[in-house]
Design a protein that fits this description.
The complex is a heterodimer of chains A (114) and B (111).
Chain A (H helix, E strand, L loop, with lengths): L4 E3 L2 E4 L5 E6 L6 E7 L6 E7 L2 E5 L7 E4 L6 E5 L8 E8 L8 E2 L3 E5 L1
Parallel strand pairs in A: 2-11
Antiparallel strand pairs in A: 1-3, 3-8, 4-5, 4-9, 5-6, 7-8, 9-10, 9-11
Chain B lengths: L2 E5 L2 E5 L4 E8 L3 E9 L6 E6 L5 E4 L2 E5 L3 E6 L8 E9 L7 E2 L3 E6 L1
Parallel strand pairs in B: 2-11
Antiparallel strand pairs in B: 1-3, 3-8, 4-5, 4-9, 6-7, 7-8, 9-10, 9-11
Chain lengths: 114, 111
């Protein structure tokens, strides 16, 4: 059973550029979550999918951020017109919908905006 | 608004020196309280879920307990490999699936 995978692991971009991250959840997990974590802080929730439906979005998710899960399997998170404040670790997690609520996290994508 | 506060922010122990980490929470109906371990540059690793006051769970040198207002992570006779940041999170029963995390406790075990 492979865990949650994320790609790329590191991304350096210039301010104003667009970036896209991918997350592959644990197979058969129908729930997928995106979080953002800055240095010295705990992860902050961004958005949640059940299958292909985006059911919850944080106020942190400005209109420059968009997430998709088109076939209910992998997900992408796109940030348009990146700003230096977007520099953070972007974490993806997945969970089963079978009554257990544990979320299993991937290794994260470290974004640096210069 | 759901809130989690962890203390202390950082803790240094000698190998074999037992201690406890605290997680205080306020939540509008607790679905579950979660403990994770996070190593530098990696994603959080799931440790425990606690669902109701009085519940306890153990794994190797770690034991998690839960009351109506806080949770403790007890570490017994720690080893240097237990050094990591320990994160506490809560999930509300109010329909939301998100985890609300504390800022973590950075634990260092000196040999």
């Amino acid at each position: 059973d492979t865990g949650v995978s994320q790609d790329p692991r590191h991304k350096i971009t210039k301010r104003g550029q667009n970036v896209t991250f991918r997350c592959d959840p644990i197979s058969e997990h129908n729930r997928l979550y995106w979080y953002r974590q800055t240095l010295g802080q705990g992860p902050e929730f961004l958005t949640y999918f059940q299958n292909e439906a985006q059911l919850e979005k944080s106020r942190l998710l400005s209109d420059r951020f968009s997430a998709e899960r088109p076939k209910g399997s992998f997900s992408t998170l796109e940030i348009q017109r990146t700003e230096q404040g977007d520099s953070a670790m972007y974490l993806c997690a997945s969970s089963s919908g079978q009554g257990w609520y544990e979320q299993y996290f991937g290794p994260g994508t470290r974004l640096t905006v210069t | 608004e759901d809130q989690v506060t962890q203390s202390p922010e950082a803790l240094r122990l000698q190998e074999g020196e037992s201690s406890s980490l605290n997680c205080s929470y306020t939540v509008s109906g607790l679905r579950g309280l979660f403990w994770y371990r996070q190593d530098p540059g990696k994603g959080p690793e799931f440790l425990f879920t606690l669902y109701s006051a009085g519940e306890e769970k153990e794994k190797e040198r770690l034991k998690a307990t839960l009351t109506k207002k806080e949770s403790f992570l007890h570490i017994t006779a720690p080893k240097p490999e237990d050094s990591a940041t320990y994160l506490c999170a809560v999930q509300s029963i109010q329909g939301a699936q998100k985890l609300v995390f504390g800022q973590g406790t950075r634990l260092t075990i000196n040999p």
